[in-house]
Each structure stands twice: as structure tokens, then as C-alpha cells.
Design brief:
The structure holds three protein chains of three kinds. By secondary structure, chain B is of the alpha+beta class. Chain B has 15 helices and eight strands. Chain C contains four helices and five strands; from the N terminus they run αβαββαββα. Classes of the chains: A mainly alpha, B alpha+beta, C alpha+beta. At the A-B interface, helix 7 and helix 13 of A face helix 4, helix 5, helix 7 and helix 14 of B.
Chain lengths: 326, 373, 146
């Protein structure tokens, strides 16, 4: 009984944290889905959804209901356990990085000392989900998409980590809270090259255009999630949007100073407003890029990573280390 | 989708079916790709999914009733197909077309050509994964369609040319709209160049994809912008001028490199040349009748073979008519440009990656209904 | 080495220029209309299905049942019948049906009619559930029109 009492605040904290993460995931999916469709419409000089609710605000809710009510079609020779497992592998790990991100000075579930490593490690489980989904569909197009996605994700994690490592060298800590607090001057000013490299890797890690060879291609009809319908498809989509949110959060924390901004009352709690503004600026940027550029070819994608991003990020790291140690 | 794994000792080859329903084959075309990993070893197009027996229909009805069918064969170049067929019958029956009708045919045909190239532009970039240029291109295209709807009555499959002229005269509203459209499109070119033509991703996707040489084009009978992308300046409007094209001053854009990027640029520059032709035609438009007088209701064609070639947006279009003296033709044969353009795919696309197959088929600008007729 | 960097910079610059174009489009007005709620006027020259014209002087159609439209139609979609009635010169039209499922909007019927009895209507919102929804009885339509 004694031990349970001493664990109680911790359990409450965990419950609140997971509930908060769930709110973020589903709320983000709603907001992002709507924002993406409206922005896509206006970039193409048309309105987006307009019918459901005032200017289509309720569209995503109705879409969610529609996707939940669809039949889960499993192809005949598909590997059934793996087929059903892939969306779960994709969706379940997205809650974890949300627990370590410093939304504001007092709103952070757990401040791990190795926050950055934790986030990157969990974010790479997504690769497994894509591979399993593509393989289990018994569909050559899906397989293709899965193979490409694996190569792409694995390759682009390296420049991403190295460019973030330059910042870690400057602040001497992996903890996300420590990096936010160490930014008197935003690191985007001190490390513009790392910022640009991270921006490109961000787009590639979340499988968004122009690097979206894994999913909505006109060459290979929807790639690894061709055969998924209904709730499984919506799980993949929510995982994708949440991944976008997480990488944008990392970008905000590392380069834009997290919650820093014009002081507001109760700043320990209301700092989240600045944080979310910056995060959604990055999300807008991701949507903007998607609707402007065509897709790169697969070997050009890998060329970009191995021949351009990796050498430049290594040079950047070297210069940072030299300057810091001097 | 067929899943045939070929019995190869290493078991690395497989057959992928870019099936009849696919977002990137424009129309109902099936391409069987024998692949190894990402590389295509042997692409084989399979045709016939949209065969509607147009040439057989031409044998059953009087010659002038075939006019609506010509528009259905290539729905993007419908007015040019109409014009070609009307010219064929006029040549066979010896009817002369008034000058104003010729000018009107040229203006509407060139508008049709621009509309076809704009749709190609947008759809090609959609295949490459850019979702916005197609919307911008369709926005411009709407202006053409509205202008042509006012004159021809339809938006896509026109039946406007008749034996001896055109069926309806154009009015000042059309001329004003055409001039306004020329101004508008010229103002939009910088936007297209900034968004697409200068974009590094687009250039990298299209450069060095496919190597067309004049010798290859001669072997397969490839004509049109693809031939001009290899350096041969062959355009029927200049080489064998028909209608009143000899009175206009325009260039034939060519490129030397013979890849998808060259074909892309040739078609893009052709839009500007078509705008020049329309401008000159609107300036020189004569007054007069739009229909020849004394065109017999029952058009008997003298016995013999007749041929007529025009420059369609995709290449050289030829009609060949064999007549046995009555008003129902004995045989109509249509030589459509996309059929010959498609036939280079097994040779050119060998050894490419699958993304390049999509790029190169988009550069061919295929319209499948005109392949299958 | 120089080519490496120049390619990188020109490439990056072209990407930024492209972004500017779409940003400008984001703040431009939309060019679409919300169709069922706002409709654009159709030009009067639009070729919908054909209709018999109601002559303002006689109050009825001008068809003389010559059958030229039926013979000239490339798709065989017109069927008309007439009969001889006493006291009336020429035939009287008793049945005029159009099978719109086969019509190709070529305009041969409109042009060949000797009395200009036919014209296109500009009805573009035709949708139906069965093929017989598109078998129009043009004689009944002209009699019911005001």
C-alpha cells in the first residue's frame, strides 16, 4: 500500500500524459487534414471542402466516420496477421515521441536525458510498418512502394541525425528541454546549413512530396497502402500526420527556440501557443512543398542524400566541433 | 493484375502489368513490363481496349456522315481531325472552300492545338507528381473551351467543319475573346516557366530520358513534336502547306537532344507559335461566305483513291479513302500519329527504370482512343 | 567541383522561385464556382438535344414530315411518322422520337431540315436512371411548351 501511494502521482502523470498525447494525435489529424485540403485547394485556385459545415470544417469528422464504417477488405492471398499488424505498427509508436517534447515550460510529460535519441529511434519504427504493409499485401505495386520507402527512410535518417548532432555539440545535451533552454539566439541563425539539411530530411522522413515515392504515386497506384481500406488506411494516414507533427516539433525545438517568443501571462503554460504556431508554420511549409513540386526519381532521391546531404552535413558537423572547441 | 513470375534460373525477373486502368497511361492502354528490380527489360504495349470500329462504321454510311466519328477518334484534336476529313472530301469531290471558311478553320484548329498542348502539359506533370500545374493549365484551357463552345456548340468533340466550309460563322464576340485569350496566355508563360520549366526536379526527371534519333523516327514512322525534338524540322504546315497556312509567318521549333526534355520544350514552344498564327489570322480575316455554294446533298465521290494529310497535335494525321463511285465509301483508313509514336516504346524504353517509362510515355503524348480507333 | 556547387545553388534557387508562384496563387481569388449553388449561364449556341421549334405565328411546329432528318442522321436516332389527313395539304406529324443515347451532336438534322423546324436546346443537366429517360418524344415536348 505504501509503495502504491508513492507511485500514485506518477501513475496519474502517465495517464494524463497519454490522454494528452491522444488529444494531440487526433486533434492534429483533424486540423491537419482540414488544413491540407483547404490549402491544396487554394494553391490550385479552387476552394477545398465547402459542403460539410461552414466552409467544410466538419469534413474530417465525416471522413473519419466514413472510414470507420467501410469494410476492411483483405486480399485473398495476403498474409493476414501481418496485413492487420502493419497499420498498428505504424500507428502505435507515434504516441511515444509526444511524451518527451517540451510544449512549454511546464507542459512536458517526461524529460529524458536522451530525448533526441528516443524520438529518432521511435520514429524509425515507421519503416518497419511500411515494409510489413507492402509485403503482406500480396501486390507487386505495394511491394515496390515498400522497398523504396525502406531505402529512402533509412538513407535520410543519417543526414538528419548528423545535422542535429551539430546542435547537440553546441549545447552539450541530448535532452530537448536543455536544448530549448540553451537558445538565447535561435539556432537557425547559428546553424543555417544544418537547418536546410534538416528541412530536406524532414520531408523525406515523413514520405511527403517531392519524396513520396512510397505512397501516392501515379506510377505505382498508391504504393504500400494500395490494398488498405477503411480504418487501416486511416491509421496509416493519422500516423503520417502525427509524424509530420513530431518532425516539425523537433525542428521547432532545435532551430526556432521552442517556446521562446513575446512573453504572455502565465508563460509557463501559455508558452504552448508560440510553440504550436511555430510547429504549424513548419506543417504549412510541408503542405506548400507538396503541392508545388513534382516527384523525384528514386535514384535521384538517393543521389541527393548520399552525394549532397551527407557530405555537407559532415562538413557542417566538423566545422561546428572545431568552432565549439576553440 | 497478373502475377506471373517467370521461371528464370535466378528467379529475379517478374512481369508487372501497367494495366488498362492506371493513372499514368492516358486512356486504356496496357503495357506489359518484364522487369528486373527497378529496371524494365522488355515493355510491350497491348492495344485494343478502346477499339470502336470507326473505320468499319465509315464503310456503312454516306461519306459526310462520318464527320462526328472523326472527332471521337482524337478528342483533344477534334477540330483538326474534322478539318482533315473535310479537306479529303473536298479534294475528292472537287469543291472549293471560300477564303473566310479557311481562315476560320485555321483559327479554330490552332486554338484546338493549344488546348491539346495545355492538357498534355498539365497531365504530364501530373504523372510526374506535381498536382498544381494541371489546375493552372486547365484554367487557361477553360477560356479556349468557352470561346469554342460559343461557335461550335460543343466543348470537346466538335463537329464543326462541313464539306465546303464550316457550319456557322464566327462573330465579333469570338474574335474579341480570342484576342483576349492570346493576351492572357502570353502573360501566363512566365508563371509556367518559373513553376515548371526552370524547376530542377522537372529538369532532372526529363533530361536524358529516351534517346530518339532521326533514324529511329524514320524506322518507326514517328512524326510530330517527337520528330522535331530530334532536330528534323518537319511540320506538315510548312513542308506541304494545306489550307491557308502558307500565308502565315511562324517557326517550327526544334531541339537537338532527342530526349523527353526536348519533346517537352518543343511542345511548349509550339503553343507560342500557334498564338502567332491565330493573331495573324485574326488580323487578316476576310469577309465572305463560310460555306461553298452548290454542295450537293448526296455527295458522290468519283471512283478512285484519295488521301489527305494534316498536322495533328501529335503528329501527321492521314486519311485515305477508297471510293467506288457511290456516296458510301468502300474503305476509309485513318493513319493516326499516336499509333506510330507508341511503337517506339519497346525499343526506346528497354533498360529504363519504371519511373522513366512513365516520363517517356508522357513525352510521347499518347491519346489511346486514336491508337485503337 | 565547381559544377557541384553551381548545380546545387541554381537548383535551390529554382525551387524557391517555384514556391513563390504557388504562394501568389494561394492569395489569388478562386476560379471555380460551387456548381449546384452557383451556375454559369450557358451560351445559347450550346448543342444540347434537339427540339422542335414552336413557331410563334402558327403556334405549332414547322415539321412537314419529309423524313430528311431521319435519313441524314449518322446515328439513326430520329424516328418519325406522319399520316395523311383529309383536308390538310401534305402529311401531318404524328410521332417524333429522339433516342438521345445515340446522338452525337453533329447537327446534320438541324442543317438539313428544309423548314428549319429543329434547333438545339441548351439543357445540359440531363441525368437519368434508365435508358428510356433519354428517349424524348419531341412532339409532346413542343405541344407542352408555352
Amino acid at each position: 500500500m505504501q509503495t502504491l501511494n508513492s507511485y500514485a502521482p506518477e501513475i496519474i502523470r502517465i495517464v494524463i500524459a497519454v490522454a494528452g498525447a491522444a488529444v494531440v494525435v487526433f486533434g492534429n489529424a483533424l486540423i491537419m487534414g482540414y488544413m491540407e485540403r483547404k490549402l491544396a485547394g487554394h494553391f490550385q485556385r479552387r476552394t477545398g471542402p465547402m459542403e460539410v459545415g461552414y466552409h467544410g470544417i466538419l469534413q474530417l469528422i465525416i471522413d473519419g466516420i466514413k472510414l470507420m464504417s467501410k469494410q476492411l477488405v483483405i486480399p485473398a492471398k495476403a498474409d493476414k496477421p501481418l496485413f492487420m499488424l502493419a497499420p498498428i505498427i505504424s500507428f502505435a509508436p507515434v504516441f511515444l515521441p509526444l511524451l518527451v517534447i517540451p510544449f512549454s515550460d511546464r507542459i512536458q510529460a517526461f524529460d529524458l536525458d536522451v530525448g533526441l535519441l528516443f524520438v529518432l529511434a521511435v520514429a524509425s519504427i515507421n519503416v518497419l510498418a511500411v515494409l510489413v504493409g507492402g509485403w503482406a499485401s500480396n501486390n507487386k505495386y505495394s511491394m515496390f512502394g515498400a522497398f523504396r520507402a525502406v531505402a529512402q527512410n533509412v538513407a535520410y535518417e543519417i543526414p538528419m541525425l548528423i545535422s542535429l548532432l551539430a546542435i547537440v555539440f553546441m549545447t552539450n545535451t541530448f535532452s530537448l528541454r536543455g536544448i530549448v533552454e540553451a537558445q538565447n539566439v535561435w539556432f537557425i541563425v547559428l546553424q543555417p546549413v544544418a537547418f536546410l539539411i534538416y528541412l530536406v530530411c524532414m520531408v523525406a522522413e515523413t514520405n511527403r512530396a517531392p519524396f513520396d515515392l512510397a505512397e501516392a504515386e501515379s506510377e505505382l497506384t498508391a504504393g504500400f497502402h494500395t490494398e488498405y481500406s477503411g480504418m487501416s488506411f486511416s491509421l496509416f494516414m493519422m500516423a503520417e500526420y502525427t509524424n509530420m507533427f513530431i518532425v516539425s516539433c523537433i525542428a521547432t525545438v532545435f532551430f526556432l527556440g521552442g517556446t521562446s517568443g513575446i512573453p504572455l501571462p502565465y508563460f509557463e503554460y501559455t508558452g504552448i501557443i508560440w510553440f504550436l504556431l511555430k510547429v504549424y508554420f513548419f506543417m504549412f511549409f510541408l503542405v506548400w512543398i507538396r503541392w508545388t513540386y513534382p516527384r523525384t526519381r528514386f535514384d535521384q532521391l538517393m543521389n541527393l542524400c548520399w552525394k549532397y546531404l551527407l557530405p555537407i552535413s559532415l562538413v557542417n558537423l566538423l566545422i561546428t566541433v572545431v568552432v565549439v572547441k576553440l | 493484375m497478373n502475377v506471373d513470375v517467370l521461371e528464370d534460373e535466378r528467379q529475379h525477373h517478374f512481369v508487372l502489368n501497367m494495366g488498362p486502368q492506371h493513372p499514368s497511361t492516358h486512356g486504356v492502354l496496357r503495357v506489359l513490363l518484364k522487369m528486373e528490380g527497378e529496371y524494365v527489360l522488355d515493355p510491350q504495349p497491348v492495344l485494343g481496349y478502346v477499339h470502336r470500329c470507326h473505320e468499319k462504321i465509315g464503310e456503312c454510311k454516306p461519306a459526310r456522315s462520318f464527320m462526328p466519328n472523326t472527332a471521337r477518334m482524337d478528342y483533344l484534336g477534334a477540330l483538326i481531325y474534322n478539318q482533315g476529313y473535310a479537306m479529303l472530301l473536298e479534294r475528292a469531290a472537287g469543291i472549293e472552300v471560300p477564303k473566310r471558311a479557311e481562315y476560320i478553320r485555321v483559327i479554330t484548329s490552332e486554338l484546338n492545338r493549344i488546348q491539346s498542348h495545355l492538357l498534355w502539359y498539365g497531365a504530364y506533370l501530373l504523372d510526374l507528381g506535381a498536382f498544381t500545374p494541371i489546375m493552372y493549365a486547365f484554367d487557361d484551357r477553360e477560356h479556349i473551351l468557352d470561346a469554342l463552345e460559343d461557335v461550335c456548340g460543343s466543348r470537346l468533340t466538335y463537329c464543326y467543319c462541313r464539306v465546303g466550309g464550316v457550319c456557322k460563322d464566327i462573330d465579333d464576340k469570338f474574335i474579341e475573346r480570342a484576342r483576349a485569350f492570346i493576351e492572357r496566355l502570353r502573360g501566363r508563360f512566365p508563371m509556367y516557366e518559373n513553376l515548371i520549366n526552370g524547376n530542377v526536379i522537372v529538369q532532372k526527371r526529363m533530361k536524358s530520358v529516351g534517346n530518339y534519333t532521326p533514324e529511329l523516327c524514320a524506322r518507326y514512322g514517328v512524326t510530330g513534336p517527337l520528330l522535331r525534338a530530334t532536330g528534323v524540322a518537319y511540320d506538315l504546315r510548312k513542308a506541304e502547306p494545306y489550307s491557308v497556312y502558307s500565308e502565315f509567318d511562324f517557326e517550327v521549333p526544334t531541339e537537338q537532344t532527342g530526349d523527353a526534355w526536348a519533346a517537352f520544350n518543343v511542345r511548349y514552344r509550339e503553343i507560342e507559335q500557334s498564338l502567332r498564327i491565330i493573331e495573324q489570322a485574326l488580323d487578316k480575316l476576310p469577309e465572305g461566305e463560310v460555306m461553298a455554294d452548290k454542295v450537293p446533298k448526296k455527295l458522290r465521290l468519283p471512283q478512285g483513291d484519295y488521301n489527305c494529310s494534316v498536322e495533328a497535335p501529335r503528329g501527321e494525321l492521314s486519311y485515305y479513302l477508297v471510293s467506288d463511285g457511290s456516296d458510301v465509301p468502300y474503305r476509309i483508313k485513318v493513319r493516326t500519329p499516336s499509333y506510330s509514336n507508341l511503337s517506339v516504346v519497346p525499343e526506346v524504353c528497354k533498360g529504363m527504370m519504371i519511373a522513366d517509362v512513365v516520363t517517356s510515355m508522357g513525352a510521347l503524348d499518347l491519346v489511346i482512343p486514336e491508337i485503337d480507333r | 567541383m565547381k559544377a557541384y556547387f553551381s548545380e546545387l545553388f541554381t537548383g535551390a534557387w529554382s525551387l524557391i522561385v517555384g514556391l513563390r508562384v504557388t504562394l501568389k496563387a494561394l492569395f489569388s481569388p478562386v476560379v471555380t464556382v460551387q456548381y449546384p449553388r452557383q451556375k454559369i449561364d450557358v451560351t445559347p449556341n450550346y448543342r444540347g438535344h434537339i427540339d422542335l421549334i414552336k413557331d410563334p405565328e402558327t403556334g405549332t411546329h414547322r415539321c412537314i414530315t419529309c423524313g430528311m432528318c431521319m435519313r441524314d442522321c449518322p446515328s439513326d436516332c430520329i424516328y418519325l411518322e406522319g399520316e395523311k389527313q383529309e383536308g390538310v395539304k401534305g402529311k401531318v406529324l404524328t410521332l417524333y422520337t429522339l433516342d438521345y443515347t445515340k446522338c452525337s451532336h453533329c447537327g446534320a438534322c438541324v442543317e438539313v431540315c428544309p423548314t428549319q423546324a429543329l434547333d438545339y436546346c441548351d439543357d445540359y443537366e440531363v441525368a437519368g436512371f434508365a435508358r428510356k429517360d433519354f428517349h424524348y418524344d419531341l412532339l409532346k415536348r413542343v405541344e407542352e411548351r408555352v
